[in-house]
Design goal:
The chain is built from three helices and two strands. By secondary structure, the chain is mainly α. A two-stranded parallel sheet has the order 1-2. It is flat.
């Protein structure tokens, strides 16, 4: 269970992890217009999110090599436990 006392014990937190390289590729595929600074800030925030997820999340799913359908399957599997 999570170390965060503000989260009720009957809740499950799931972090959808992604590698910086995959995130960069997905942002480009979306056609999102980001400045180099915006992209750098997003990648920096990803590292903070990854670090914090180890403390605050019950489950971490690496989505880098998964299709959206596969991610959904894993999320549903966690919820149904």
């Amino acid at each position: 269970m999570t170390n965060n006392p503000q989260i009720r014990p009957n809740m499950t937190s799931i972090f959808l992890d992604i590698s910086p390289e995959t995130l960069r590729e997905r942002i480009k595929m979306r056609g999102a217009t980001m400045t180099d600074l915006d992209l750098s800030n997003r990648l920096d925030s990803l590292e903070i999110e990854k670090r914090d997820s180890k403390t605050y999340c019950d489950h971490i799913i690496d989505t880098s090599d998964l299709t959206p359908e596969q991610v959904l399957e894993q999320v549903v599997s966690i919820i149904n436990k």
